[in-house]
Amino acid sequence: MQANSGKIAAMARPQTARSRRRARDELTVSHRERLVEELLADPKLAAEYLLAAAEDSDHRVYFTAVRTVTGLPELAQNQLLLARNLT
């Protein structure tokens, strides 16, 4: 909390639109970035994420999860092409 206290205090002061956007952007993280960080940091969570995706009847959901967990979009794309060729 202390690391962000200066940023939060700075946001409380009157600011221009540009400085408000800059302060907001420093405090926010995209959902995808946060998800990838959490999955890479916790292998158990990554496994649960993949298992949940595998339960979906649409195989694209699983391959998207593989791409998210591994960070290798080309691997997931190759697996998707393989699955299409097998069906």
Can you characterise this structure?
The protein is mainly α and 87 residues long. Helix content is 82%, strand content 0%. The protein has six helices and no strands. The protein has helices at 2-12, 17-27, 31-41, 43-54, 59-70, 73-86. It is elongated and about 60 Å long. The model has no long low-confidence stretch (mean pLDDT 76).
In short:
This protein has helices at 2-12, 17-27, 31-41, 43-54, 59-70, 73-86. It has 87 residues and is an all-alpha fold.
Portion of residues in beta strands equals under 5%
SSE sequence, one letter per element: HHHHHH
Gyration radius from CA atoms, angstroms: 19 Å
Q: How many distinct domains?
A: 2
- Terminal CA distance reads 52 Å
What is the oligomer described by this structure? single chain
> Looking at the structure, what is the overall shape?
elongated
Helix content: over 70%
Low-confidence stretches: none
Overall mean pLDDT score?
Answer: 76
Q: Characterize the largest beta sheet: strand count, sense, and whether it forms a barrel.
A: none
Number of strands: 0
Query: Given the helix and strand composition, which structural class is it?
Result: mainly alpha
Q: What's the number of helices?
A: 6
